[in-house]
Amino acid sequence: MTGTLAIIGAGPKAVAVAAKAAVLRDMGIPVPQVLAVERTAVAANWQSSGGWTDGNHRLGTGPEKDVGFPYRSTVAPRRNAELDDAMLRHSWQAHLVATGQFAEWVDRGRPAPAHRKWAQYLRWVADNVGMDVVRGEVTSMGVDGSRWALRTEMDTESTTINADAVMVTGPGQAERSILPGNPRVLSIAQFWHRASAHERITAERVVVIGGGETAAAILNELFAHRVSTITVISPQVTLFTRGEGFFENTLFSDPTNWSGLTLAERRDAIARTDRGVFSSRVQDALLADDRIRHLRGRVAHAVARDEQIRLTLHTDRAGESLETVHGFDLVIDGSGADALWFTDLFTQDALDLIELSLGGPMTGERLQESIGYDLAVEGLSPKLFLPNLSGLNQGPGFPNLSCLGLLSDRVLGADLTESADRNSRRSHEHQPLR
Asked: Pathway of this protein (predicted)?
């Protein structure tokens, strides 16, 4: 495809697409101009400044699953082997060789790198391929004719970026919490900023809200702090361990047979291996610490009272809805990751267009079920790529780091040359659904 592809966020997915586009361009294959709109820096969420980590915790995915993995390209017919060979120049191992770290990494048993080391790798790739990064925060997404119009702001200046397609990445805002402004409630960003500053947390009863890998990383850090009890609140019946064997991992790196599964089978596979589960490494640490407890349910309400934070917990049991109240000295809201964070950016004209494509009001479920092979919303022009929502339809590896090379193939292989007047025809034939 040709034209301009704007990517919101300059994380691993953006770097992978930019790298693949640069290699294809060097091979003489037409590709779009790729530009990333980033409010801070490349790989910011993997550094302490991004609010999602202190930078010292270990990467949950093997670093060999880098920007070109699994090196099984399909986007350059008859030249895919050449493409894979060229992408190896931007691999994790190539980075280590270039920076004099390869032998030490091998001698240490190929350990998972710290998040800050992963950020260094991503920045190395971005620099090598001349990744085009526009500094700014996207504040709205509208439609200008047959193109997207992204309004961005940086400091006191604002500008509009027009693009033939947009890819949305990123987990949302780490600053969000259930009780903003209360010193006894920490957002993900507030917690990691304390950890980065080596501030020791001292409390009797601490609770972490969330059962996914974000909450697991927080727990892993809390083990070293002076707390008496740590309670984990999640909707699952228990704290499940993520499946990390060969067969589970294959689902992430090779989605060939994913479309042959029923919807129920796909949901079950994601629940067992990816959604709301802890890595085996974190589970081993949990087993060794008798301060950990688990409460099943969803937090419905939070209030500060008697020098505590009282959480109202909603739980469904045997067909009945129960509410219980629990008091804690410190609450860490680890549920901040939100795959739908970008939906508030759409202007009314963009929202109308999306709802026409979805056949109804925009919901998370409708968006997930609309994602096509190219990781974009089917039937929507201009293209909107949503890899973070593509797991259900296309495979669980696309929302995370498990098959960045396949992700870039799907996106760069998409057709942006569809008739530009498709949307205008639709707007005359239909009215937005409400």
From this structure: Siderophore biosynthesis; mycobactin biosynthesis
Looking at the DSSP bridge assignments, the partners of residue 312 are: 301, 325
Is residue 164 within 8 Å of residue 4, measured between CB atoms?
Answer: yes
3-state SS class at 76: coil
Q: What is the pLDDT of residue 428?
A: 42
Beta 383-385 vs 165-168: how paired, if at all? parallel
Would you give the DSSP letter of residue 373? T
Domain extents for the chain?
4-172+338-429, 185-240+276-333
SS3 100: coil
Residue 429 has pLDDT above 60, yes or no: no
Cα separation, 176 vs 47, in Å, equals 18
DSSP 342: G
Closest CA to 164 of 183, 146, 138: 146
Tokens of 308: 């505590």
Average confidence (pLDDT) over 414-420:
65
Average pLDDT over residues 321-338: 89
Just give the CATH number of 185-240+276-333: 3.50.50.60
CATH number of the domain at 4-172+338-429, out of 3.40.630.40, 3.40.50.300, 1.10.3720.10, 3.50.50.60?
3.50.50.60
Residue 135: is it exposed, middle or buried by C-beta count within 10 angstroms (0-12/13-18/19+)? middle
CATH topology agreement for domains 4-172+338-429 and 185-240+276-333 = yes
Residue 405 dihedral angles phi and psi, to the nearest 5°: -65, -40
Residue 64 identity (one-letter amino acid): E
The letter for the amino acid at 201 is I
Q: CA dihedral in degrees (215, 220, 223, 224; nearest 10)?
A: -120
| DSSP string for residues in 197-227 | TTPPPEEEEEEEE--SHHHHHHHHHHTTSEE
Judge contact between 59 and 118, C-beta under 8 A. yes
Would you say 169 and 152 are in contact if contact means Cβ atoms under 8 Å apart? Answer: no
